[in-house]
Design goal:
Blueprint (H helix, E strand, L loop, with lengths): L2 H20 L5 H41 L11 H29 L5 H21 L6 H13 L9 H33 L1
């Protein structure tokens, strides 16, 4: 939660500097078209990374709840219906509210061009994959992509990034954990008499 945003920012900045240097003598219009096409692949890679991280966390919580009440066997693995429910929930959530997040990340922090979008998505996907496959560590997709966008945006100039918007996002990240704990405690207090 702390390392992935820092890694996203640093890698986003470093890779974007490298890309800018590599294409410095290329014709801008053709280069822009190529990055627009390449961004289709990086967006797909980012979507897979999103599923690898966020859907896994949802499945884990549901599976843990099922095991704790004896409705699942820890030796048979996660039931298929749990996988389908997690995939459906993350898809529905992305479909219903994802456009607002994408608009904030792609326009309110900095106006992303195809090259910067490609690099931010690629860096985020790599961080998500390495954490999922090599380190087996859960990280936040939103933290990773947001910090990568700030990193690639900072290559224009530091003032190009709207740090106020980024600050509001960071405050929301910090408040999420205690807010979730407070809601969970309230639900427990309210439901305890019913559960027994």
């Amino acid at each position: 939660m702390i390392v992935s945003p820092v890694l996203g920012f640093v890698l986003g900045f470093a890779v974007m500097v490298g890309v800018l240097w590599a294409v410095r003598r290329r014709p801008p219009a053709r280069t822009l078209r190529r990055f627009r096409l390449a961004q289709t692949i990086s967006a797909a890679a980012m979507a897979l990374g999103h599923g690898l991280q966020d859907a896994q966390k949802t499945m884990g919580v549901i599976y843990l709840a099922l095991i704790s009440v004896g409705w699942a066997n820890p030796h048979t693995g996660i039931p298929v219906w749990v996988k389908l429910a997690a995939a459906g929930a993350i898809s529905a959530g992305t479909y219903s509210g994802g456009w607002r997040i994408m608009r904030t990340l792609g326009r309110r922090i900095i106006e992303l061009d195809p090259a910067r979008g490609f690099v931010a998505e690629s860096v985020s996907a790599v961080v998500l994959y390495v954490n999922a496959f090599a380190l087996h560590a859960p990280v936040s997709t939103t933290h990773t992509i947001t910090s990568a966008i700030m990193g690639v945006g900072a290559t224009k100039r530091l003032s190009a990034v709207r740090w106020g918007v980024a600050g509001n996002i960071a405050v929301a990240w910090v408040l999420t954990i205690p807010a979730a704990a407070a809601v969970a405690a309230l639900c427990y207090v309210l439901l305890r008499p019913l559960i027994g």
